[in-house]
Specification:
- The chain is of the alpha/beta class and about 375 residues long.
- About 40% of the residues lie in helices and about 25% in strands.
- Helix 2 runs parallel beside helix 3, helix 3 crosses helix 5 and helix 6 runs parallel beside helix 8.
- The radius of gyration is 21 Å and the shape is globular.
């Protein structure tokens, strides 16, 4: 078996937030908790795991990475460049909460080496933002975007969220229109999932909020996909559109079974068919300098074949059966002998295309993606 890209990506988790949003189940907590000790352990782990390997993407996620100063971001990137061979033109992304940046900090991040910024805007409606528990207003989000442009960022992404309880189609259309009018290079659009342990889940249990019905959810998704396509964005991944040449190179590693190294609390890695997940205990992570508490899973041949399908079908380009054979060493229909009839059925029902050895889903097929993917477990 081979990997599809000889260059790794680096994911770095910053677990700090000012406060958790009502829908958030990500690994994050108060921004002052053992921060200096955490950064020491994080940089130690990055340096330990690099071994001079070539990397062409770095993604700093969270949490809220822009709670860190430009100097702290520089320290992290310096650890990356001293232990990995960062190729020229590497994509280096930081996630940003619009409520945590200034013109000065944005200029500092750019000087530190960040060349792509991903704003978690979610909505351009203040009522929706309050319902989500965001710390910024719609105008503050727009102002932060403008400050990033003035600082010199020429690769900006926005995250938007639909199917929020109480969100109307009109408000969703207004959010998309405002986003497109600002001309970002990349837009991701996600359906809200009500996760256990979140304030939204407790509100759902006690009947304070109700889930958005599936028809409305799908109508919002289809409208966004069509509107963004009409606005010059290529729909290249289930939840993401981009202008030509501005697809997220780091995220495409996840969907292409390429290697990536995760550093930080709870971070995942996939390296040469082995998946590891770091501990979620802050104390354990700090005391072990990122080495202790990792869970390890070595993929079987079937695991890798199944994951190739799962991840590949998130791309609108789908999966090539020739690439499947190259990656796994086996023919697709030998590994999944029952799938030939299933694929024929999905094509006939308008859920998929199967042309020239490429299997991909239609937008209608994405609506039932989970049911389709279950056939490859």
């Amino acid at each position: 078996m081979m990997t599809t890209n000889s260059r790794t990506g680096i994911y770095i988790h910053i677990p700090y937030c000012i406060r958790k949003c009502a829908y958030c189940d990500f690994l994050s907590f108060d921004s002052g908790l053992l921060r200096e000790e955490y950064l020491d352990a994080l940089c130690f782990e990055i340096r330990e795991r690099g071994d001079g390997r070539c990397a062409d993407t770095v993604y700093i996620g969270g949490g809220t990475p822009t709670l860190l100063s430009p100097g702290e971001i520089y320290r992290i990137l310096d650890a990356c460049s001293s232990s990995f061979a960062l190729s020229e033109g590497s994509e280096i992304t930081v996630e940003a909460n619009p409520g945590t940046v200034t013109g000065e900090s944005l200029s500092g991040y750019l000087s530190a080496g960040i060349n792509r910024i991903s704003f978690g805007i979610q909505s351009f409606n203040d009522d929706v933002l309050r319902r989500l528990g965001r710390i910024h207003t719609a105008d503050e989000a727009a102002d932060s975007y403008s400050l990033a442009r003035k600082a010199g960022f020429d690769n900006i992404s926005m995250d938007l969220m639909f199917a929020v309880p109480g969100l109307s189609m009109d408000i969703w259309k207004q959010t998309l229109s405002r986003a497109v009018s600002m001309d970002p290079e990349h837009i991701s659009f996600y359906s809200l999932q009500i996760e256990e342990g979140t304030p939204f889940y407790r509100m759902y249990e006690n009947g304070t909020i109700t889930e958005t019905d599936e028809e409305t959810d799908r109508n919002m998704y289809h409208y966004a996909a069509a509107f963004l396509a009409e606005s010059g964005y290529c729909h290249y991944e289930v939840s993401s559109c981009a202008k030509k040449g501005f697809e997220s190179r780091h995220n495409l590693k996840y969907w292409s079974m390429a290697d990536y190294t995760g550093a930080g609390l709870g971070a995942s890695s996939f390296e040469e068919g082995v998946r590891t997940v770091n501990t979620s205990s802050l104390e354990e992570y700090i005391n072990g300098c990122g080495r202790d508490g990792r869970r390890v899973h070595v993929n079987t041949a079937f695991d890798s074949a199944s994951e190739f399908v799962f991840t590949g079908l998130r791309r609108l380009a789908g999966i090539s059966l020739d690439e499947f054979r190259e990656f796994t060493g086996n023919d697709f229909f030998d590994v999944f002998p029952e799938s030939r009839k299933k694929i024929e059925e999905w094509v006939n029902r308008g859920f998929a295309y199967f042309d020239d050895g490429v299997f991909r889903l239609t937008l209608k097929g994405i609506d039932i993606q989970n049911r389709i993917l279950m056939e490859f477990v």
